[in-house]
């Protein structure tokens, strides 16, 4: 038999006689499929053609024998293997587990692939007959097994390429990066259809803040990769955000820090600037600069470009010099004056001008730098005499080598320098007043009596040893300047207020030295007499201490002051007669102001003959047994109230003159000085009597210890 299945055989026996008789025997049996034939395998099910990573996939294998009969029962010793090999990497494979399914009467294969891609299945049969494994036939439509990844997982996707790299991107250069889609297992997705978005924004706090750059294109390559292109034009720092469905590709590194640098240098956008483009001086170095920019207006920072220039149509032999920050400097020297044309190029194209330069019109080479000077003013001629403290003006005209008025360069600077005995004393800057003319002021602050050698000099501001002009001969002289109140009055006031030795009746003196602002003594005889050219008029007045508001008496006038010809000090001599103060007043001639200072005048020694004893106690007497008093007023010889000198006291004695018997004695406390009344003493006493009649006595006041006479009686 060649067909498997159930069979029935009928055996019919006949006797062959005339009377037909038959006997029938029925026999049933089954025919099974013969040995398994690899060529008769039928492989079916989606799992053999496609699958997804990490998902169980199945397919079935229906076996037949060589006659095409299906094998419906498991045969012992039979083994079927299924191996799937990667089309991209022959070393990569996975296997399927093959087992007999009794219920279905066939073999079932099951696998779970981990990596997506195209695989080729290799199914083999070992029938257990010793002939070894044979390959099973696959469907004629089989082209491979495609293992698909899961759906796109945003945080598993990858981003790479120059557009997100650490290397700077040139402005105007398309930047490209690639997004590679992966599923949640990190498996590469080999199909397209995902949507990604990207946007670059200028970083906060930088020059690009507020700038955005959108993608030029985002191409879906259909194999799970997406190619993005963007073109930034403004140099600076950016953050490039790559997203899918609004979710940032954080794990991939988004947002990416991207640095954009200036692009290729553009002659049209680069800017030339500087005085040397339109102005120069014959024989003097002239300079100008170029700032390189790219086509988008970004300032270049490198120094790799080559800018060239020409002057009056003649190319300069060397390129401009890089000075850093994308700037280049050109310098040249023109030996003659006249029109000036400077042209700057980059790779044969004309370089533009900076906005502040404006049109180059009327450009010219001016006269040469100053080499000589004509200096005029006080102190510039031999023997000039200047007054100390006065502000003096000096002018200087500058000339070039040809004797024409010179042209100053922007950095030309000169000083008017004062030398004393060959040593620099001070410097003042010359200011340009017009054209080649300069002006400076100076103030001599020297000792007018000094024999020092003083010269004025014109020097460069950066080199005081280089003398471009010097006062000829022996130089200049300094005379005292105008009287200065501060320099004169302040030291005099301090000295006068410290005086305590003025005494009524004794000849006194003080000195006044009139000085100018630098402190030079003026040596002017009439300086205290008042009038034009003097310091002012001085008056000394005495003020009575007992009547400070009363009229003061003039005891000296400045016209009588005598000047010491050696020191220049004015001597003021006077004799005060009133104890109180002397007031020295000056009416300053220069501004009409009024100055004054006071100094105390003490009374002279006590004079007994000029002193007085008075009061009820000596004029009218006293009632017996009661304390009464009288006063003593001490005075000097000029009748100024006077105080007792140290060691001198008042001695009071009483003597009887007749009448009833009695006695007189000092009261408690004895003589006391009256507060606020210099030289006035209050003397208490008590009188007694022994009879009804009056008791008469005399009182005598003497200066004890001072050798003076009686102070009076009564």
TrEMBL record:
PROSITE patterns recorded: FILAMIN_REPEAT (PS50194)
Single GO term (MF): actin filament binding
InterPro entries the UniProt entry points to: Filamin, Filamin/ABP280_repeat-like, Filamin/ABP280_rpt, Ig-like_fold, Ig_E-set
Organism superkingdom: Eukaryota
UniProtKB keywords: Repeat
GO biological process: actin cytoskeleton organization
Entry annotated with the keyword Repeat: yes
Pfam families found in the cross-reference section: Filamin
Start-end of each Filamin repeat: 33-126, 149-260, 262-351
PANTHER family assigned to the protein according to its UniProt record, in alphabetical order: FILAMIN-A, JITTERBUG, ISOFORM N
Name of the molecule in the record: Uncharacterized protein
